[in-house]
Amino acid sequence: MGKMNGGIALLLIGAAFFGWIGKAGGAPPSPSPMVSYLVKNFEDGKARFYEYKAEGNFTIKYFIIKSSDGVVRAAFDACDVCWPEGKGYFQQGDFMVCRNCGKRFASVRVNEVKGGCNPAPLSRQLVGPAVVIKVADILEGKKYFDFSQRRRK
C-alpha cells in the first residue's frame, strides 16, 4: 500500500471510531463500512458521478461536487419528485440540472436544500484529505432506485 493510501486507511479507521472517543466504558463500536474519495479530485468544480451496488440488485447513484463556495457536497442522483423516471442530473456550469423536468439547482444548494426536485442530500464528512461517506448513508438512497415501485404510465 502506498503512503497516501495507507494514510487514508488510517484516517478511515480513526473516523470509524470517532464516535467512540470520549465515551466512558464499553468496547468500541464495530466500524461501519465507508467509501472515500480524495478531495483534490473535486478541485475543478466538476460533478463526479458514482454508483454503489447494493443487495437486491439495486444500483444507488450519487454525485460529489465542490460548489462555487468551496464546499465539497454530495447528493443522490435523484430527487423526491422525478426519481421514478430514473434520469438523474447533469452539470451545466455552476448548476445541477434535472434530466426529467429541467429544473436547475445552484451548486451551493446541493446537500443543503432537500425535498421537491432538489437533489436528495447524501451525508458526507471531510476527514483529512478525503471525503468519507458511510455505506449506511448510501443505502438510505435505495428508495430512489427501487424502480419496482415506479409509477406506471
Question: Which labels suit this protein?
Answer:
153 residues, 3-stranded antiparallel β-sheet, Rieske Iron-sulfur Protein, alpha+beta, globular, 12% helix
Topology of this structure?
Blueprint: H1 3-16, E1 34-38, E2 48-54, E3 58-66, E4 72-76, E5 89-92, E6 95-98, E7 104-106, E8 125-127, E9 130-134, H2 135-139
Antiparallel strand pairs: 1-9, 2-3, 3-4, 5-6, 6-7, 8-9
Give a written overview of the molecule.
The structure is a single chain. The chain is an alpha+beta fold. It has a single domain, classed as 3-layer Sandwich (Rieske Iron-sulfur Protein), CATH 2.102.10.10. 12% of the residues lie in helices and 29% in strands. The chain has 2 helices and 9 strands; from the N terminus they run H-E-E-E-E-E-E-E-E-E-H. A 3-stranded antiparallel beta sheet has the order 1-9-8. The chain has a 3-stranded antiparallel beta sheet with strand order 2-3-4, with no helix packed on it. A 3-stranded antiparallel beta sheet has the order 5-6-7, with no helix packed on it. The chain is globular and about 40 Å long.
Give the CATH class. Mainly Beta
Shape: globular
Strand content: 25-35%
Domain count, please report it. Answer: 1
Say what the CATH topology is: Rieske Iron-sulfur Protein
Name the strands of the widest sheet in spatial order: 1-9-8
Q: Total strand count, please?
A: 9
SSE succession: HEEEEEEEEEH
